[in-house]
Amino acid sequence: MKAVCVHETGGPDKLVYEEAPLPSPGPGQVLIRIRSIGVNFIDIYHRKGMYPASTPFIPGMEASGIAEELGEGITEIKPGDRVAYAMTLGSYAEYAVVEAERLIPIPESMEFESASAALLQGMTAHYLTHSTFPLQKGATLLLHAAAGGVGLLLTQIARRMGAYVIATVSTDEKAALAREAGAGDVVLYSRSDFEAEVKRITAGTGVDVVFDSVGRDTFDKSLNCLKPRGTMVLFGQSSGPVPPLDPNILNPGGSLYLTRPNLSHYVADRAELLQRAGDIFRWIDEGSLKMHIDGVFSLRDASEVHQLLESRNTRGKVLLRP
Ligand code: NDP
C-alpha cells in the first residue's frame, strides 16, 4: 500500500510518501480501507518527536473508511461498514488497522470527508466544554486560535451552551470566520495585547475560563485574564511547550485552577467515546454544527500540508485523500 512514513523525526521533509507493507488485523482489530484522512496539529508533534513514537512510523490520528477485513472475535462490525476513528496512530496511508472498540459507525447521510474532519477536533471541543470545564449559560471564556480546527468547533459549541466567547486569531480573515462561528468579541493577538483587550471587554473582571492551545506564547497572559477562582485549560502547545512553572503563580490571580487535559482520557471507555462522537455527528447531521473544510490534498502532499498548518496558513480543517 502507499503510505507516508517517518523514518527520522524532524521537519515536514521527513514525511516520505512510499510503499509500505499492508497491515493485517489481529484479534479484536479491523483493517480499514481509508477514504479520507483528518490532519491535526498532533501529527506535527509526532513528526517532530515532541510526542514519542518509535521510528519508522506512519503518522496521522484520524480517518474514515470501509471495514475491509476483520480479526477474530468481532461481532459489532461487518465487512463493508462505513466507519471513522480518532486517536490511533497510522492514518496517513491507504489502509490502517484499528481496534474495533475505537471505531464509530458513520451515519448514512454523512460523507467520508465530513466524518474524517469532525471526530478528533469535535470530540476535543466537546470534552473541553462539557467535562473539563462544563460551561454554564452566561459564562465568559477566552479561546485562542479560534479559527483553527478545534477553535471553530469549540466556538460554536460554547455558543449553543449559552457562553460568551472572546476569541483570538492572527488575521482579519480568521477574525471573520471566528465571528461567523459565534464569537462575541475577536482580538487580533498578532497586533494587539490580548490581555489588555480582555480586561477592557470584561470591564476589568476577567473570564471564567481560558482554553489555551497556543501554549508558550500565550500562557502567562492567559492566566492574567482569569477571574479569581477561574480555570486555565492548557490543551495544546502550537507555539511551543510552556516552560516548567512554580504552582505559586496560581495564588496571586485569585486561587486559580490549572489543568492540562488530553482527549484520550476523555474517551477512554467505549460508552464515553460513543456518546461524544454521537453528539458531534448528530449536530453536524442536523446542521447545527458547521464544518469548515479548508482544503483536501493528496496524501503524497502531506509535507506541504504540514508546512501550511505549522505556518498558521490554514483555517478550520485540512484533509488528505489517499
Ligand atoms: P489549528 O487548526 O488550531 O492550528 C493551530 C493554530 O494555532 C494556527 O492556525 C494558529 O492560529 C495558532 N498558532 C498560534 N501560534 C502558533 C505558532 N507559533 N505556530 C503554529 N500555530 C500557531 O490546529 P488543531 O485544531 O489541530 O489543534 C489546535 C490545538 O489543540 C493544538 O495545539 C493541538 O495540539 C491541540 N489539541 C489538543 C487536544 C487535547 O486533547 N489536548 C486534542 C486536539 C487538539 P492563528 O493564526 O489564529 O494564531
Describe how the helices and strands are arranged:
Blueprint: E1 2-6, E2 15-19, E3 29-39, H1 41-48, E4 62-70, E5 82-86, E6 95-99, E7 104-105, H2 112-132, E8 140-143, H3 149-160, E9 164-169, H4 172-181, E10 185-188, H5 194-201, E11 207-212, H6 219-224, E12 226-234, E13 257-259, H7 263-266, H8 270-285, E14 293-298, H9 302-310, E15 317-321
Parallel strand pairs: 8-9, 8-11, 9-10, 11-12, 12-13, 14-15
Antiparallel strand pairs: 1-2, 3-4, 3-6, 3-15, 4-5, 5-7
Helix pairs in contact: 2-3, 2-8
The structure holds NADPH dihydro-nicotinamide-adenine-dinucleotide phosphate (NDP).
Which sheet architecture does the biggest sheet show?
7 strands, mixed
Helix-strand sequence = EEEHEEEEHEHEHEHEHEEHHEHE
- Attached small molecules: NADPH dihydro-nicotinamide-adenine-dinucleotide phosphate
Number of separate structural domains:
2
Q: What structural category do the secondary elements indicate? A: alpha/beta
User: Which value, in Å, is the CA radius of gyration?
Assistant: 20 Å
- The CATH class of the largest domain is identified as Alpha Beta
Spans where pLDDT lies below 50 across 5 or more residues: none
* Global mean pLDDT: 97
Q: What characteristic shape results from the CA principal axes?
A: globular
State the fourth-level CATH superfamily of the largest domain.
Answer: Medium-chain alcohol dehydrogenases, catalytic domain
Compute the separation of the termini in Å. 10 Å
Helix fraction bin: 25-40%
Number of helices: 9
Just name the CATH architecture of the largest domain. Alpha-Beta Complex
Write down the CATH topology of the largest domain. Answer: Quinone Oxidoreductase, Chain A, domain 1
